[in-house]
Amino acid sequence: MLTLMLTLLSPVAAAGDVLVLDEGFAADHDPLAGVDGWEAGWSGDGWRTKFTQGVRPATNTDTPRGWAGDTATRNHLVLDDPDAVYGDFELEAEVRAGNSGALGVVFRYQDDQNYYLALFTRGDRPSDGAGSTTVNQAGAVLFKVQGGTATILDEDSGSTKAPLQNTWTDLRIVAVGSQIDVWLDRDGDGFEPGEKFLSAVDATFASGMVGFYSYNCSSEFDDLRVWLYDDDGDGVPDERDNCPADPNAAQHDLDGDGDGDACDDDADGDGHTAVTDCDDFDAAIHPGAVETCNQVDDDCDNAVDDNAIDATDWYVDADGDGWGAGAAVSATACSETAADGAAVPVRRGGGDGTSAW
User: What is the pTM of this model?
Assistant: First the structure.
């Protein structure tokens, strides 16, 4: 069952890393292609989770060949899901090789003609270029497949760079910016510096999907996990965080501009930054705003309800009869208290203190 960690993301790999994909292939499917977003790169193999611990290809062949065509050279299984597109990440998976063919992981996958491939083989692997032949050379190879043509970015030959036969082995890929590093834990004691067999700098693909690869190999894969980086430690990966340098787990974005409130210098989007805006979370309040009678400093001039457009004219009640008198306005304010303790509003003009009109 596919598990994409989309909301309650938990740091697992290391402090500051967030587990976003944890796939153990618990359910039986034959084929798996077309289920839960998994898609096969070659129509001749739908892959399966049935009859195996994790997932495996249904075929074991190197024909037909060619990186660009619908061939066994393109026998990969990719998680095609918009929520599973990763830029900078750490990936781990368990792999097992049953014979001398090749297995590996595809990543930053754009489509079946464009992706990176970290490949390990006990013997056979596809050639670079068009991939029209099978090369018999044990070791590790980092391919870039672009436009259906494969380029070797790095390689490390030798049987000690390949998984042990019929033994589950941990594989690790770290991709940060243009830097790509690949480990294979052959002795089962954790990833050590000497087990980083592949390393390259290439900026062709900045992000993409992930999946598995098999070529002329009775291979198996399990426990695919992906972590994304979380520099501010708020549980939201940097590449999905609207404030990657400021903790804001709730991801509030009042003005919807893509910058979270925690790091937006104009959170309410009214054109005034928090330096001059006396309430940066209310777009109606800012320097130059229209002041109204609402007991709020709308225009940020440090005065409440001054010069409000809906203020009332007040007249002095000289004879104490409850009505303002005289033609001259005593004050314009939002309340009697604000105008004068003895003033009342005129009903229909100045009046003479004796008329209710």
Answer: 0.83
